[in-house]
UniProtKB/TrEMBL annotation, chain A:
Chaperone recorded as keyword: yes
GO molecular function, one term: ATP binding
Gene3D superfamilies, per database record: GroEL-like equatorial domain
Gene name as annotated: bbs10
Protein name: Bardet-Biedl syndrome 10
Keywords, alphabetical: ATP-binding, Chaperone, Nucleotide-binding
Highest taxon, organism lineage: Eukaryota
Species, as recorded: Myripristis murdjan (pinecone soldierfish)
Family, similarity comment: Belongs to the TCP-1 chaperonin family.
GO BP term, example: chaperone-mediated protein complex assembly
Length: 561, 215
């Protein structure tokens, strides 16, 4: 049996508010950690909003939809999951307030509820269109000039005082601020230095930073080795590659000579004894014996060829047959296949690219896993930071969003492009939100109320950061406003740094923030476009539960709906 | 506007409580409570739980004298304070504060924390009352209904005494009603307003019952 439910605006707001209450306690540099435990004793320690939300037991369809959006966003950007929920809740509140006000005026719709839903949907769609078309320009003109640009030239360089390097700031400040929110004050500097050291080892002159970061992120599972039972400070970067496999045949390396290795992705010896295999015999009574000898001779040929090439190490992605292992052993070759008992450390000499591996240590499995996840998210955050973003949509995208509507005479030309320079950063602590709030209020748009909606919603982030100190909130807001007015008044020729803009206390990426706002607006629009929720009793598709693989939910509950 | 703000505060409280329960391992269901529309939670014993109905509303019950002995004793104390001074001074009780402080030194009143034994007695077999003698009869005579605690006496058998008791009860309730109304007008807290409204509703129900008894 199934029933239909029509989600009302207040239900959506209520659902998101509950998720907001979950992540609020972990929000900000002083946020707490959440320790999840299973009956089996397995623990998960995290301050990541994504991990916390995906570990919750959620059957509510709207809640699952929001968590799915958060997961997808952070899978790309690596950061901003808690900000996502905060901003989404804040936008829903301002839209709810605006919709209620409009309902008091108009009585066109048959019911107040339908009127509120329609108003909210319209506002969300309009906000999304604004975000896709104009927000990038607002950020380029109203936020970027007040920040700085990170340098990729020397990732391992130490911090440079702001007054000696006006616009270029090192990578460490960005990473320190990031790790502070994920791992706390104790290890943020350590992991920041470790990340810079790791990236400097992989640095390649002819490759863009975004390519390198993407490569490392894609292969992070094999480029790092989690080791529990050691202090976090024992984490290090080691030269070479650590393979999470063991030798299937004895290996001896006594003369310290370079080793030639070959990588196999399949089976060297075809296994004809598997269920379902069809063996076609031709020619004579000795067909089976003839087939066996044939395959053995082909294997001997392969091994002989490898031996002639001087190969002494076979790296196999699948488990090889006993015949392969025996022949390889007799020929003096070592095989590494599917066994998983120890680690093998290999280094590569005289190669153009020297791969390095990361050993991440932690007192327990939970802490080690937390550090490893934070490290990978940092790579994604860096990748997003250095990815150039074109901030203005083309005419084709605009026509989809504004079909049937006439363009206002004050709109900009359709193909005007602005590019957010890679590496743009602003100081942490709500500076981005304050700057964008101010820029939106000054922005000349056809719908002033829309800018006001987004501007007001953005302030939720600094309000939460300074929830324990309203005085600091006002101080920061005043500093930002004064800095803007002073800089505009001097036509940007005066070189000075206020307390807010020293960029020494930590920075955050403008690109990440921009992508976050776009993702939130997209999720908001999707939520409010829902006309009906169908409750069925069929099991969920397994693919829909892929983001719950790290959760502590029982798998049985995940299949019910 | 105040109503909207009050609703928002209540919703925020519900959301905060639900967030805490989710972190404790409760499951957020795809269903809503039939009474209040709040999203239902489910614990690990498969028992559904509505935060609004089962937790938030129960906070209001602690000030309902029919359900909470401490509230009942507080009401008795206030009634006695109101009854102690002469009639003109009863008007001061509408403001609450001055007469209370005026009379607090003259009449020894039981403090709510001394009434735990009486509070436990409401829900089970009545133990020996652990309250001072001045308020001792009151918890023993509390009715299991919405009636506020009445003045205990041994003269319920005579109709005139019964009539005076009912009148006294009616006066006490009216006094409390007036006081609650004045507090409600000046209240700036949502929870206090909700509790005062509940008290007013209880007083009205009690008055109706007293009038039925008088008939």
């Amino acid at each position: 049996m199934s029933h239909v439910e029509r989600p009302h605006l207040k239900h959506v707001l209520h659902t998101v508010s509950v998720l907001e209450a979950v992540v609020l306690r972990s929000f900000g540099p002083d946020g707490g950690q959440v320790l999840f435990t299973r009956d089996t004793g397995q623990v998960m320690l995290s301050r990541s909003g994504t991990r916390i939300l995906t570990a919750l037991r959620l059957e509510h369809p709207l809640a699952r939809m929001v968590v799915e959006c958060v997961w997808k966003h952070t899978a790309v950007t690596g950061d901003g999951s808690k900000n996502f929920i905060l901003l989404l809740a804040s936008l829903l509140r301002v839209i709810h307030t605006a919709a209620c006000k409009r309902c008091n005026v108009s009585h066109t719709y048959s019911s107040r509820e339908a009127m509120e839903n329609a108003t909210a949907r319209h506002l969300a769609d309009t906000l999304l269109a604004f975000g896709l078309e104009e927000l990038g320009d607002v950020i380029s003109t109203g936020v970027v000039p007040y920040g700085g640009v990170l340098s990729w030239e020397d990732p391992s360089a130490h911090a440079v005082p702001a007054h000696t390097n006006k616009d270029m700031h090192t990578l460490q400040k960005l990473l320190t601020a990031f790790f502070h929110t994920r791992l706390g004050h104790t290890y943020c500097d350590f992991f920041s230095r470790l990340t810079c050291e790791f990236l400097s080892c992989w640095k390649c002159e002819d490759k863009a930073p975004s390519y390198l970061l993407h490569l490392i992120d894609d292969n992070f599972s094999v480029l790092h080795t989690p080791v529990s039972g050691f202090p976090v400070s024992c984490s290090r970067v080691i030269e070479g590659q650590v393979i999470h496999r063991d030798f299937s045949t004895p290996f001896s390396w006594t003369n310290n000579q370079p080793v030639k290795a070959v990588v196999f992705s399949g089976h060297l010896h075809p296994d004809a004894h598997k269920a379902g295999a069809v063996l076609e015999l031709r020619g004579g009574e000795r067909g089976v014996l003839r087939y066996t000898s044939c395959t053995e001779r082909s294997l001997e040929c392969v091994i002989t060829t490898l031996q002639s090439l001087g190969v002494s190490l076979l790296l196999c992605a699948v488990k090889q047959s006993e015949a392969v292992l025996a022949l390889a052993g007799l020929s003096g070759m070592c095989v590494v296949d599917f066994l998983f008992h120890r680690y093998i450390h290999m280094s590569f000499h005289d190669s153009e690219i020297k791969p390095h591996s990361l050993v991440i240590c932690g007192a327990g499995e939970g802490q080690t896993d937390q550090c490893a996840c934070a490290f990978q998210d940092a790579l994604r955050m860096l990748h997003t930071t250095w990815e150039p973003m074109h901030t203005t949509a083309t005419t084709a995208a605009k026509s989809i969003l504004h079909s049937g509507k006439s363009r206002s005479p004050s709109s900009k030309p359709p193909l005007q492009k602005n590019v957010l320079n890679p590496g743009c950063v602003v100081p942490v602590g709500g500076t981005f939100e304050f700057l964008l709030h101010h820029a939106l209020l000054q922005h000349d748009t056809g719908i002033p109320a829309l800018s006001r909606l987004l501007a007001d919603a953005l302030l939720c982030v600094p309000q939460q950061i300074y929830s324990h100190s309203p005085r600091r909130y006002l101080q920061t807001q005043t500093l930002v406003t004064n800095y803007i007015e002073l800089r505009v008044g001097h036509c940007r020729k005066v070189d000075f740094k206020s307390d807010v803009f020293t960029l020494d206390s930590g920075v955050e990426s403008v690109s990440c923030k921009y992508k976050l706002i776009l993702a939130v607006l997209q999720c908001l629009s999707s939520l409010l476009r829902l006309d009906a929720v169908l409750h069925t009793h069929t099991p969920l598709h397994k693919q829909a539960c892929r983001h719950s693989s790290s959760s502590l939910e029982d798998t049985e509950e995940g299949d019910e709906d | 506007m105040k109503v909207i703000q009050a609703r928002r505060e209540r919703q925020d409280k519900i959301s905060k409580l639900m967030g805490e329960y989710l972190l404790k391992g409760y499951k957020m269901l795809g269903e809503c409570c039939e009474l209040c529309g709040t999203i239902l939670l489910q614990d690990k014993q498969q028992k559904n739980y509505c935060v609004s109905c089962q937790e938030l509303d129960s906070d209001i019950d602690k000030d309902n004298p029919a359900l909470n002995a401490q509230a009942a004793l507080s009401q008795v104390r206030e009634r006695q304070l109101a009854a102690q001074p002469p009639a003109p001074s009863q008007t001061h009780t509408l403001n609450g504060g001055p007469s209370t402080s005026q009379c607090s030194g003259s009449v020894p009143q039981p403090r709510p924390e001394h009434c735990e034994g009486a509070a436990a007695g409401l829900r089970g077999p009545l133990p020996a009352p652990a309250v001072p003698a001045s308020a001792a009869p009151a918890p023993n005579k509390v009715l299991a209904s919405t009636y506020p605690p009445t003045v205990p006496s041994g003269s319920l058998s005579s109709s005139s005494a019964q009539h005076s008791v009912l009148d006294d009860a009616q006066d006490a309730i009216l006094t409390k009603l007036r006081w609650a109304t004045s507090q409600l007008q000046s209240s700036a807290s949502v929870e206090a307003s909700i509790q005062l409204c509940s008290l007013i509703a209880s007083c009205a129900q009690s008055l109706r019952s007293l009038k039925e008894l008088n008939q």
